[in-house]
Structure formats: C-alpha cells, structure tokens
Specification:
35% helix; Plipid/glycerol_acylTrfase; globular; 11 strands; acyltransferase; 237 residues; 8 helices; disordered C terminus; 3-stranded mixed β-sheet
Length: 237
C-alpha cells in the first residue's frame, strides 16, 4: 500500500512533473506474469525512475545498510526504500550475491516484476560493462521473460557522488521481451548463462547507444582506460 501511495500520490506525480520522463517502448513490458527488467546502471536515481514509469510494481534489492541508518536521515532513507518496494539484502557475507538472486527469484515465482542491474554496480564512467550471469540464472530458474531497459541520461541528472539531482528530462528506452525458454533444459551450464547474459548486454548497448567494455565494472576505477571497446550505432537523443 505504501508503495502505491508514494508512487501515485506523494512522490510520483512531483517527479513526473519535474523530470518529465520520455519513455520509448513501455508497451514492451508484459502486463502479467513474471518479468525481469534488466537495466544498465548509471546513477543512484535509476532505482527511482525505473519503478516510476512502470505500470506494475517493480522490486529491486539493495544493501541492508540503507535500511539501518540512524536519526532523521536514516528514517527517511528507510521509508524511501520500503516505499519504493526495495528489499534489503545483507551483502557483508560471501553469499551476498546468491541471497540477492534468491530474493528476486521469490518475487518472480509469485508472478511479479524484478529489477536487476546485470553489471552489478554503477558504471564508473558512463560506459556499459560486462554483465554478470546472475540475470541469466534468474531467467532460467523462473522462466520469466527479460525486458532490457536502457536509462539514457540519468548520469547527467544525478552524477555519482551528488545528492541533489539536476532538473533535466529523463530518457528511457525499453526493448522487446527476450525469451530464453529454449535453454530451459540447460540450467547450470555456465556457457549458456554467459551467452544469455551477452545477448542481454548487446540489447542494452543497442538501446542506450553507450560504448561497451568487455570487463566487469567492479574491477575498474574511473581513471583507468578500459580495453575492448565497441560502440553501438544508435545515438542517445
């Protein structure tokens, strides 16, 4: 209830008025059944704008520290993430990634929409980085279709490290659903998981127009020049 109150009454209308989302392909998101939204990750605000423009509730996971802060700031952070439908996951242990996937799998098995950032972390420099295969495992385990969602300019609206976003029209492109049911009998095959993940990342590259770097974002710092760069032909509007 708090999710819809925040989205439809308290915060959502104001955000839409200020940032005037321009969305292409919203009809590509299935109206029912389990769906995985595979998004590129440019900014903290990605987890705000993605649920904002969707007609269905979207569930992301976030580190548990966002829910345990002290004082007024901690309270606002906790209420925001709870209201946004985000589920806390303890990322301190070695099984943190699996815990996040298990949480999203439960969401999908209930027939709902799960959001995931295949890159695993925010892009350090705006480029698109190699996807981790967790998104493929989710698709194979749940049978859900994967919808690529390209956030095109959220790094300009709220660059990493900034608290107050710039007032600028947010642009989002949504691709057609990807069906990987043909691989249903090959769950656990790491080569199949890599192929699925690479297909998803290719679609995100084409939608976003961002350069693709075939290494994991977590292994790089912003100042490091990444190898193996490809550029999609489509430009960001």
């Amino acid at each position: 209830m708090f999710y819809w109150l925040l989205k439809l009454v308290v915060l959502g209308p104001l955000l839409k008025l200020v940032f005037r989302p321009k969305v292409e392909g919203l009809a590509n998101v299935p109206r029912s059944g389990p769906v995985i939204l595979a998004c590129n990750h440019l900014s903290f605000s990605d987890s705000i704008f993605t649920p904002l423009i969707m007609k269905r509730k979207v569930t992301f996971v976030a580190k548990a520290e966002y829910f345990t802060g002290k004082g007024i700031k901690g309270w606002f952070s906790r209420m925001f993430f709870v209201g946004a439908g985000t589920i806390p996951v303890d990322r301190s242990g070695g099984e943190a990634a699996q815990a996040a996937l298990d949480t999203l799998l439960r969401v999908l098995r209930d027939g709902n929409v799960a959001g995931i950032y295949p890159e695993g972390t925010r892009s350090p420099d705006g480029r698109l980085y190699r996807g981790k295969t967790g998104v493929a495992r989710l698709a194979l385990e749940s049978g859900a279709k994967v919808v690529p969602v390209a956030l095109c300019n959220t790094d300009e609206i709220q660059p990493t490290g900034t608290l107050i976003p710039k007032v600028k029209r947010v642009r989002i492109r949504i691709g057609k659903p990807l069906d990987f049911s043909r691989y249903a009998d090959q769950r656990g095959d790491r080569f199949v998981e890599r192929a699925i993940t690479d297909e998803i990342m290719y679609e995100l590259m084409a939608l976003s127009g961002r350069e693709y770097v075939d290494v994991y974002a977590a292994t790089l710092k912003t100042t490091v020049e990444a190898p193996t760069v490809k550029r999609a032909g489509r430009k960001v509007a």
